[in-house]
From TrEMBL:
Native species: Microbacterium murale
A Gene Ontology molecular function term of the record: DNA binding
Name of this protein: DNA-binding MarR family transcriptional regulator
InterPro entries given in the database record: HTH_MarR-typ, MarR/SlyA-like, Tscrpt_reg_MarR-type_CS, WH-like_DNA-bd_sf, WH_DNA-bd_sf
A Pfam family per the record: MarR_2
Keywords for this protein: DNA-binding, Transcription, Transcription regulation
Domain HTH marR-type: from-to ranges: 30-163
Keyword Transcription (UniProt): yes
Source taxon at top rank: Bacteria
């Protein structure tokens, strides 16, 4: 698939110009921030999707597998997966059902809470997430498209935005958030 040719001008700069021309001066910078971050997310997600496609994984499926692989026993309560991934329980449940169907995880009863479920990584799931992680590391994460300094600055800025939005609270979890 051929990459699209770059546009001759930045459409977000033009959008900001239009915002200013229409007298929305107090909102122009915020509109530019929001649309810039959303466009960057689209660009990064396209790279992630391309890296994960050979493994038949979406980023949501990868995140569940990777989280389980990071856990000591390769299993976590469904509620912990929901909390750590910061997505709605319905989304995790749906993703988990597809992973179960594909033999990558098992859904098991919680040993102490009859109403809760445990998600457990299978050997096939562990092998797949390791291969997918290697691909993501080499194709996306090791070269995110900016310098190390810019990456650290961006992560710090976004962390402040997330903290101010209530994404996490003080005291800071250990290790410190990026």
């Amino acid at each position: 698939m051929a990459l699209p040719r770059p546009l001759p001008t930045d459409p977000l700069a033009e959008a900001k110009r239009q915002w200013l021309a229409h007298g929305w001066t107090d909102a122009a910078d915020g509109m530019t921030v929001v649309t810039s971050v959303m466009r960057a997310q689209q660009l990064l997600l396209a790279r992630v999707d391309a890296a994960l496609k050979p493994f038949g994984l979406s980023f949501a499926r990868f995140e569940v597998l990777r989280l389980l692989a990071f856990s000591r026993a390769g299993r976590l309560p469904l509620s912990s997966v929901v909390a750590r991934l910061q997505v709605h329980a319905t989304t995790v449940t749906s993703t988990a059902e597809r992973l179960v169907r594909d033999g990558l995880i098992r859904r098991e009863p919680h040993p102490h809470d009859g109403r809760a479920a445990m998600l457990s990584l299978t050997e096939d799931g562990r092998a797949l997430v390791e291969r997918a992680t290697t691909a993501l590391n080499s194709e996306v994460f090791s070269r995110p498209g900016m310098s190390s300094t810019d990456a650290a600055d961006l992560v710090a800025i976004v962390a402040r935005l997330r903290k101010d939005a209530g994404d996490f609270a003080e005291p800071r979890p250990q290790p410190d958030p990026l």
